[in-house]
Amino acid sequence: MSASKREPILELAEAFTLIRDAEEARAFLTDLCTPSELNSLAERWEVAKLLAAGGHTYRQIHDLTGVSTTTIVRVARFLNEDRAGGYRTLFERVQKEDV
């Protein structure tokens, strides 16, 4: 199937699988996203980590990160409903790397 016929999000996801290390990932994300978009992604990841760790209220997470409670609720909803499973999959892999 030609690249023009493929789903753009899937094509982007496949491009991510070709990244070899954190520096390549940072370079790709910096080229792909505006600074604001990249900051939003990083904030969501930080919120997701805090929510997964437990022990923080939404207000505490807001105070720690400056992220809006609307965004915190959205991330929590995706974590709790495990919509695509992306957060959980990466949390498990990160934990294995830290061991």
Automatic annotation (TrEMBL):
Record InterPro entries: Trp_repress, Trp_repressor/repl_initiator, TrpR-like_sf, YecD_YerC
Protein name: YerC/YecD family TrpR-related protein
Coiled coil regions in record: none
Organism: Sphingomicrobium sediminis
GO molecular function: DNA-binding transcription factor activity; sequence-specific DNA binding
